[in-house]
Each structure stands twice: as structure tokens, then as C-alpha cells.
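Q: A reviewer asked whether we had any structural model of the full assembly, not just the individual parts. We don't, so I'm hoping you can provide one. Inputs are below.
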Amino acid sequence: MPDTPFIDDGSNVPLSELRWPDDDLTRIPDWIYTSDEVFQRERERIFFGESWCFVALEAEIPEPGSFKRSYVGDVPVIVTRDEDGDIHVFENRCAHRGAEFCRALRGKAENFTCPYHQWMYDLKGKLMAVPFRRGDHGEGGMPKDFKLEDHNPKSLNVTTRHGVVFASFSESVESLEEYLGPENLEQFDVVFKGRKLKILGFYKNRLQGNWKLYHENLKDPYHATLLHVYLATFRLMVAGQKSAMICDESGRHSTMASAKDDNIEIGEETASQMKSAFREGMELNDPDFLNYVQEFDSPWTVTMQIIWPNLVVQRELNTLGIRHIVPRGPHALDMYWTMFGYEDDTPELERQRMKQGNLMGPSGYLGVDDNEAIKYLQDGFKHSHSQEGIVKLEPEKEGSTETLISEASVRALYRHYRQVMDI
Amino acid sequence: MASTHPAGTNLSPEEARALRFEIEEFNTEYARILDEQDIDFWPDFFTADGFYRVTAKENHDEGLPVGLVWCDGRPMMQDRAAAVKTTMVHAPRYLRHYNSNVRVTGVDTDGTIHSESNYLVIETLMEQESRIFQAGLYIDQFVREDGVLRLKARDCIYDSLLIPNDMVYPV
Ligand code: FES
Ligand SMILES: [Fe+2]
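A: Here is a predicted structure for the entire assembly that you could use as a starting point for your response.
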């Protein structure tokens, strides 16, 4: 879905000409969202750097021979479970001429054969066979010193925690536990520790915005009370209710948490600030829709966790899912959603998850708002005279906070980002 | 998958043709309401206990239950219609719905009519070229209430796995 080609959209500005305005974290320059060179550096330093990237849920590859096509950054990879039950992640690119050889979204296989010249790989991602390696009737063939083991697809470092699979191009990356930090590890475990996951389905959409805007969106509780009219109208999130933004020390990960309070009074002052974000008197025809079945050991009814650089863990009442961010150049990102419940769910609970699924996703009551807002932002960055935005709310803080009216964790993210990117 | 030939159903060719025409008329009106974004009327195409879902073909093929939109009963559809109209923030757009290849696949003894048809939605944002937004298959169950057809279930199975940005209106 390319944009109209003759419009200058900021992609071509060289990195050497770019300076962060006054080194000031309250000002964010547009070029971090539009420059091709910035995006190339993000691939190298973030997605191929010292990061753990989400690639799969173990429930998607339950048996020996199960595989899934996935991405680290925008790089296609295959996630497999081998005969011994071990998980492997390797580049979905043939070592011969470079074909992206695995095309099925997921499935079961004994091995993979690249269709172009039928080089064959096993479930561990090792090259097993090259047709006509010795030539035909003594003619042609590979050089004598050609060794299969020198031509495996690039394989990645793999780690798992409670059924969630992460991969890294780095061999020196810290452990996943250290990477997440104790606060976000705790929130992660609320969803994944204990019960076995059951996959309920998939969807995907392409957002017309830079991939970092999705991170910012989930580090920006200010918008939640204003953009999302639905949240305010049905008292799912209003200024003054119990909430928190839980960041790690580095500033890259965070969890936006809130506790639904059906009895919260919206005072006159709050109501007047939120006047266009609030539809008085609107009632649900299906009153059970927002019922929350208490099923987690947590004071929060909603947690939206974003794990740098490519994973969102959604626990919105009883609808659960992960979103896998696949950056597509500076101007777009693909969002791969996997919705799940647990194997021991009652039919009623599974039904409630399906119902509340209407809140999120590409057609969600809240999801649509965010997707549209991200497109509005990117449109603003691409074709503009002005060159920067501001994030000044709650100036005395950077990182975790307890008020919704804050941009402290956006600033924390960009401190980390600037360090890694050296910009 | 059910047979696509009326001979594969328990209907005579004449009965199948008459039903097909009636369903085509129904879908024409359904498309008109969505083209005009008269979303308030959308739930009325369903029975009070009707079911509506929009899901990716990959879910349908694997028997997975999720839907982008998942409405069990008219009240949920009314809540979605109200959300589209009053709470969901979105840029203006034009939508054009096309429906074709209606095939009646069977009629149950209680009168429930099973049918399938193809659908196509073209979306136009104010500053962009028109594009195919979604191609898919309706898998329907109709019943008659006071002589008029209503949907007891409409499963919209889309081929267009990668949704462009978002889906505001039902299809
Ligand atoms: S490109 Fe894969 S075998 Fe030649
Ligand atoms: Fe949001």
C-alpha cells in the first residue's frame, strides 16, 4: 500500500545532517519517524542488536515438527520444534541464492526444501542435501571442498519463558529475565505463568505509521482518557482512577495498568476537561459485555505491556492476546495478533474472551482509535513545515508514574533509544 | 464445504432459483445500508438471537473462534453500531459493497436456509486512491420472520489477511 510516490515524505534526509533539538528529551524530531537511514540503523542496533525479539508462543508449535513463519524486525525467520522438542529459530532464506523458501504460515514438516534448486534443511535449520552436489556423470557439481555445514541459514539465539519464545541475533545479549527487569517480569508472569495457553485465533493489519509510534501509544496514558471515548463513557479508564505506568530501569519496557472501578464518580472538573471524550447517558444493550471475571492474581483489571522492541501483551479485562510488531520501513508497521485463552477455560469464560475481543484488534472499539491516531501522526510527520513535537507532561518524572496525565515514560524510552542509536 | 450446485441441495432447481433471487435482494439492501453508512439499521437484518462474525480465512480453515467483530445477539450488534457512530474515532471514508455468486447450499427441515456468497468492499479515504479493502465469503443462515428473510448467522470469512489499517464498519 504505497503512498503517492511523488510526494517528499522525509525518507531521504541523511543521518549526518540530523541533530536532536537542543538535546532536549521533551522535544521529539519528526525525522526519527521518517528517515530511511534512521530505520536502517534501528535494524542494525535494535532488532539485530542486544535485544530479545518475540517470535512465537509455544502453543503455536505444540509438537515435534511444528513450525511457524515469523519475523525478527522485518527479517523473515522460521520457528521450529525439532524431534527432541527443542525450539530453533533460523532465517527463512535459502543459503544457495537467498529464496525465502518457507511460505506456509504454520504447519508440520519433517524438513524444508527450497523449491528453486531443492536444497534441503532439517528442523534445526541445518543444510542436509544439495542435489547434484557431485555433478552429473562426472560433469559440473560443487567444488570438492564444499561442505554442507558451512552453508546453514543464519540461526538465532533462542530463549523461552512460560511458553513464550524470543530470539536474538546477538550471542552476548543478557538473559531474558535481566532484559525485562523485575517489574516487567512480574507483569509478564501474571499472564503466562501457570496455566497452559490455548490459541483462539489470529489476525493482522498494516498500520500506516512508524513502529515506534506503537510504543509511544502504550507509554502515553494521557491519550487513553481522551482519544478513547469508549473507555471514558463506560468508566473503563478515567482520570482519577487507580492506575500505573510501570517501567523498567532502562526505560524501554513498560506496563500500563488500571483497575476498573464501576463506582467511580466523574467530578465536575474531570468531566469538563474530558467534555468531548465522554458520552453521557450512553448505555450498553448487552450489559454483561464489560463484566470482568477475576482470574488473575493482580490488582489490575487491565494491563497493556510493551516489551522492547516488538511485543505487546494485552490483558484487557478477559480478552488476552499478543501483538507482534513487524516494522516495514519508516512509514508502516505490520501487527500480527495472536489471541489466546487457557486450556482449562470454561466455555463461558472462552465466550467472554470472544465477546470482549470486540474492544481490541483491527476493528476494536479502542483499537480503531489508536490505528487512526497513528496514521494521523505519520501523515503529520511526512508532509509538514514544522519539524518536531513535544512531550512535556509531568516534567519532574522520567519513567514510572501513577498519574494518567503524564508523558514521563515516553521520555524514558527516548533516553534509552538515543543511547542505543547514538543520535 | 457444501456442494455449490443446487442439485446438491434438497431443493428443486426452481425453488433454489427463487431463493437465490430472494437472497440477492436481501444482500442488495444490506449492501446499500452499509454503503450509506446507515449503521443504525444494520442490526435489523438479523434475528434477535442472530450471530455475526468477521474473521480471517486462516481462522476459519483451522476452526478457530476469534472474530475481528464477534456479536452474539442483536443487542451486541446495536452496541457495535452505537460505538461506530458515537465513540470510535476515525477519518471519513466511502465504502462500496459488492455481493455476488449467491448459492443456496441447503434447507433444514425447520426452514433454515443455508447459503454462501462472495463479497468485496472497496474503501476510499479522502486523500487516497480507492482500494480493495476486503475480499471474502459470506457463510449465511437465513430464517423467515413474518415472511421476510433475516440472518440467523452471517460468518464473513475474509481472504485479505493483512487488513489495511483498520476496519471501522461491519462488512
Ligand atoms: S535458491 Fe534455494 S535452492 Fe537455490
Ligand atoms: Fe490507546
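A: Points you may want to mention in the reply: Residues A 94, 96-97, 99, 101, 114, 116-117, 119 surround FE2/S2 (inorganic) cluster (ligand 1) (CB under 6 Å). The interface with chain A takes residues 54-56, 58-59, 64-76, 78-80, 82-83, 86-91, 128, 131, 161-168 of chain B (CB under 8 Å).
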